[in-house]
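User: Hi! I have a protein structure encoded as tokens and I'd like to know what sequence might fold into it. I'm fairly new to this, so please keep things simple.
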């Protein structure tokens, strides 16, 4: 019937074609009409047959019904299970070209969103020394980022942020990796790029000047309003810290059930208890207690499961060095989240009490000073326990996780709103979650395309450490200093040929 009517159906309505006709013939409902006729015939025969005996006709109609039902079932089983492959073979399961273009456009949008997120993260001081080679290694769609694209993202951030709140992103450690985009750079663009880096340096100098001096509020004095007491302000600040951690969870920067997050949230709970007793902020000590407990628990589990751990190492699953890198990364991510929460809470705290007086009260300045002391303790813990390269690597991985998590949330929102089909979003999410898993499992200390743009900074940090140890009397002879210097060379340069930045730095000093 479909073949006979094909010359008509190919010209009217939505029109058809041979692949659609073949699939209709193969998968059409050929059992439903037969079963309906068999049931009708069986019912008619039963009505006209005597009630006390089973006639030959009733036996024949019952047999016919069974045969028709069996054929319908076999049709459903065979044709139904092979309909999908036939659909793909005929090319009817392929996405229309329009949908492919829509998916490609959404992919472009989330790639641009990833660049915007990256620029926003670079405005934070804790991500000042992020290594872009790690970023582009783990996030392929940022691998081809150009100077022009980064410049536009910075301009977009600047235009969308109030001038009083805008902070230039730290670009000096990202810029050396970026190509120009295959186009000639005229003088105007060179000047714009130069101004971009100058803004970064100027912001670093301004931040250094402001360190240790709470920001003066710029608002009108509201007379007759009684300010909260020191204890109430401290409790409010702790609530702001807790809110910041919750915001980091919602934005994908923290995972709600991860031990890092649990330790951070628990530190605010313990700090709230001590604050009610009139004690100053000391949430970093509380954080260290919970973090140490988690590390000891992991060590205990490893000790009990030493055979499985040995078996895993023997199979090449994870070496001792890789386990150490993983633990260091967790520690750095925890401290970075702690610093971010304090910075956010300090900003909101100053804005809140800035609406109550032209100048921060003495108690408010005390809270700000306590918060900055906690941040300093966290920064000192990073610099004293880990070398700069480890901190840089862990913070770079942290940036990768935040960017990927935000992109995953973006794709989920598009799916919920119906902009993307579940099948289309599934492919994108599988790709993004695969990238996320690679970041989490990464144990590389160096990544492809890494440039030694941090060597001199590392050398300066090592030199400061040597000076401090000499002043403290821990190093008393030149032989000891030279030995430490050679060790620093090995850490910074490794097998890189030529005179090291550490040697040059010390000799110039």
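Assistant: Happy to help. Inverse folding works backwards from shape to sequence: for each of the 509 positions I chose a residue that suits the local structure. Here it is:
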């Amino acid at each position: 019937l479909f073949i006979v009517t094909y010359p008509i159906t190919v010209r009217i309505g939505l029109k058809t074609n041979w692949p659609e006709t073949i699939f209709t013939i193969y998968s059409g409902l050929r059992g439903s009409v037969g079963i309906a006729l068999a049931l009708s015939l069986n019912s008619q025969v039963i009505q006209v047959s005597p009630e006390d005996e089973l006639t030959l006709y009733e036996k024949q109609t019952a047999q016919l019904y069974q045969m028709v039902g069996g054929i319908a079932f076999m049709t459903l089983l065979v044709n139904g299970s092979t309909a999908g492959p036939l659909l793909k073979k005929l090319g009817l399961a392929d996405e229309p070209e329009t949908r492919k273009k829509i998916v490609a456009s959404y992919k472009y949008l989330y790639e641009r969103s990833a660049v915007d997120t990256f620029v926003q993260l670079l405005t934070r001081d804790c991500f000042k020394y992020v290594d872009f080679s790690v970023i582009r290694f783990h996030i392929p769609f940022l691998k081809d980022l150009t100077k022009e694209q980064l410049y536009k993202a910075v301009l977009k951030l600047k235009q969308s942020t109030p001038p009083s709140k805008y902070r230039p992103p730290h670009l000096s450690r990202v810029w050396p990796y970026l190509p120009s985009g295959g186009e000639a750079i005229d003088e105007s663009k060179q000047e714009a790029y130069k101004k971009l880096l100058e803004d970064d340096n100027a912001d670093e100098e301004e931040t250094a000047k402001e360190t240790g001096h709470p920001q003066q509020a710029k608002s009108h004095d509201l007379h007759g309003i009684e300010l909260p007491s020191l204890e109430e302000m401290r409790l409010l600040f702790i609530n702001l810290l807790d809110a910041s951690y919750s915001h980091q969870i919602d934005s994908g920067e923290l995972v709600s059930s991860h031990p890092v997050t649990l330790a951070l949230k628990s530190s605010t709970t313990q700090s709230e208890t001590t604050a009610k007793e009139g004690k100053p902020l000391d949430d970093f000590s509380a954080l260290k207690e919970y973090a140490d407990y988690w590390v000891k628990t992991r060590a205990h589990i490893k000790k009990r499961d030493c055979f499985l751990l040995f078996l895993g190492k023997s199979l090449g699953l994870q070496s001792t060095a890789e386990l150490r890198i993983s633990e260091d990364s967790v520690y750095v991510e925890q401290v970075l989240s702690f610093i971010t929460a304090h910075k956010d809470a300090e900003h909101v705290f100053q804005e809140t009490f800035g609406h109550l007086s032209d100048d921060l009260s003495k108690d408010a300045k005390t809270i700000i000073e306590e918060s900055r002391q906690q941040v300093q303790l966290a920064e000192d813990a990073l610099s004293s326990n880990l070398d700069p390269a480890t901190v840089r690597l862990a913070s770079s991985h942290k940036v990768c996780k935040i960017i990927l998590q935000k992109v995953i949330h973006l794709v989920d929102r598009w799916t919920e709103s119906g902009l993307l089909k579940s099948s289309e979003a599934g492919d994108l999410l599988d790709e993004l979650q695969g990238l996320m898993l690679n970041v989490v499992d990464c144990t590389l200390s160096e990544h492809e395309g890494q440039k030694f743009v941090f060597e001199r900074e590392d050398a300066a940090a090592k030199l400061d450490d040597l000076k401090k140890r000499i002043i403290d009397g821990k190093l008393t002879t030149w032989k000891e200093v030279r030995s430490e210097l050679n060790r620093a060379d090995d850490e910074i340069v490794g097998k890189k040929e030529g005179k090291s930045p550490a040697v040059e730095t010390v000799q110039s000093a």
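A useful reference point when you look it over: Confidence is low (pLDDT under 50) at residues 208-224, 301-305, 307-324, 493-503. Feel free to ask if any position seems puzzling.
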